[in-house]
Design goal:
Blueprint: E1 18-21, H1 25-38, E2 42-45, H2 49-68, H3 74-82, E3 84-87, E4 98-101, H4 107-120, E5 126-129, H5 136-140, E6 149-154, E7 163-167, H6 174-186, E8 190-194, H7 202-215, H8 223-232, H9 239-246, H10 248-261, H11 270-278, E9 284-285, E10 289-290, H12 293-297
Parallel strand pairs: 1-2, 1-4, 2-3, 4-5, 5-6, 7-8
Antiparallel strand pairs: 6-7, 9-10
Helix pairs in contact: 1-2, 2-3, 9-10, 10-11
The structure holds 3-hydroxybutanoyl-coenzyme A (3HC).
3-hydroxybutanoyl-coenzyme A binds near residues 157, 246 and 250.
Family: In the N-terminal section; belongs to the enoyl-CoA hydratase/isomerase family.
Protein name: enoyl-CoA hydratase
C-alpha cells in the first residue's frame, strides 16, 4: 500500500491546523483519521449542533476503543480529544492549512461552502473535497483561487478502507495535489490519482456492479442470496449490505449522478431512489441485522 504514483515533485503545504466542514457520517470519520495521524489541532465545523455532538461521539468513541484495546494511552487520547474544536462558525476554521469538505453532495452547496471558506482562509490554504462523484473543476470554478481545490475521496469505513482517490481538477495546483498525496501518506492510505470524471475510478466501476446486483432480485433471485453469492466469491460484503453501510441516500445519489452522466451505461434503478425517499431503514438495518425479506419484497418487486 501507500502508492504515490502521480505525486508532483513539489513541496506540499505544511499543515499546522486542519478542518472538516460537514461533520456527518464521512466528515466525522475523516476528522477522526486526521486527528490521529496528523496530530495537529482539528476544527470540526457544521451548521447543526446535533451533527457536531454526534461527530464528537464518533471521534471520542473511536479513541476510547483504542485505549481499551491497548493501542493508545489514556493520556494521548485525552490530548487528542482536547485538540478538537467543534464549531458552528466558519471563523473558527480560519488558520487551517487544509480543509476537507464533506457536506451534502449538491454542487451549489459545495460551491457556497468553498466561497465562504475562501473569505476566512489564507491564500495558500488547500480546499479538499470528499465528493463521491461531482466535478472538482466545476466546484472550484467561481473561486478567486481555484488552484487550491483538490479531490480527496475517502471510503467508508474511513479508518479501515486503505484507499483514497485524489482528483486533479482543471486548475488544481501542484502544491494542492502534493498536499493531498502527503495527507494520503500520513494517513497511511494508498493514493490513486484520478481524472475529474463522474464517479472517478471506484464509483464508476462499483455502480455498474451495484446496478447489476439491483436488477438480480427482479429475475427471481432474493437479494439475500445475491449477497451470499457475492460474498462466497470472496468480496467482504454483499452489494445490499454495502448499501446499508454507505447509506441509502448516498447510494441513490451516486446512482443518479452516474445515470445522468452516462444514461446508456447506468440504469436509474427506481428501487434505489424509492428506498432513499421513503426513509426505509434499508435492506440491512444495522440495529437489527438483516431485515426479513417479506418486509421489503413489496418495495423490491420481483417481476
Ligand atoms: N466503522 C468503523 N470501523 C469499522 C466499521 C465501521 N462501520 N466496520 C468495521 N470496522 C472496523 C472494526 O472495528 C475492525 O477494526 P479492528 O481491526 O481495529 O478491530 C475492522 O474494521 C474489521 O472489522 P470486522 O472484523 O468486524 O469486520 P470485517 O472483517 O467483516 O470488515 C469491513 C468490515 C471492513 C467493513 C468489510 O466488510 C469491508 O471491507 N466491506 C466493504 C466496504 C466497502 O467496500 N467500502 C467502500 C464503500 S463505497 C464508498 O465509501 C464510496 C462512496 O463514495 C459511495
Amino acid at each position: 500500500v501507500r502508492r504515490q504514483p502521480g505525486k508532483p515533485d513539489v513541496q506540499p503545504r505544511g499543515v499546522t491546523q486542519a478542518a472538516i466542514v460537514g461533520a456527518g457520517l464521512m466528515g466525522a470519520q475523516i476528522g477522526g483519521l486526521l486527528l490521529q495521524r496528523l496530530e495537529v489541532p482539528l476544527v470540526m465545523k457544521d451548521l447543526d449542533q446535533d451533527v457536531l455532538d454526534q461527530a464528537r461521539q464518533t471521534i471520542e468513541g473511536d479513541l476510547d476503543k483504542r485505549v481499551q484495546r491497548g493501542r493508545l494511552s489514556a493520556g494521548k487520547a485525552r490530548f487528542l480529544k482536547s485538540n478538537v474544536t467543534y464549531s458552528l462558525d466558519d471563523a473558527d476554521v480560519a488558520g487551517s492549512d487544509l480543509v476537507v469538505e464533506a457536506v451534502a453532495e449538491v454542487m451549489d452547496v459545495k460551491k457556497k461552502v468553498f466561497a465562504d471558506l475562501e473569505r476566512v482562509l489564507d491564500e495558500g490554504a488547500v480546499l479538499a473535497s470528499n465528493t463521491s462523484t461531482l466535478s472538482i473543476s466545476e466546484m472550484a470554478s467561481d473561486l478567486t483561487h481555484p488552484e487550491r481545490v483538490v479531490g480527496l475521496h475517502f471510503f467508508n469505513p474511513v479508518q479501515v478502507m486503505p484507499l483514497v482517490e485524489i482528483i486533479r481538477g482543471e486548475s488544481t495546483s501542484d502544491e494542492a495535489l502534493s498536499t493531498a498525496f502527503e495527507i494520503a501518506k500520513r494517513t497511511r492510505k494508498s493514493a490513486v490519482l484520478c481524472g475529474d470524471a463522474p464517479g472517478f475510478v471506484v464509483n464508476r466501476v462499483l455502480f455498474r456492479f451495484m446496478g447489476a446486483c439491483a436488477r438480480a432480485p427482479r429475475t427471481g433471485t432474493p437479494f439475500t442470496e445475491v449477497d451470499d453469492a457475492i460474498k462466497a466469491l470472496g468480496l467482504p460484503m454483499g452489494p445490499f449490505e454495502l448499501i446499508g453501510l454507505v447509506g441509502l441516500e448516498v447510494n441513490a445519489h451516486v446512482a443518479r449522478v452516474m445515470h445522468e452522466a452516462f444514461p446508456d451505461r447506468f440504469d436509474l434503478d427506481p428501487n434505489f431512489q424509492e428506498l432513499a425517499q421513503t426513509g426505509l431503514p434499508g435492506i440491512y438495518d444495522w440495529s437489527r441485522g438483516r431485515v426479513p425479506y417479506d418486509e421489503v419484497v413489496e418495495r423490491w418487486q420481483v417481476d
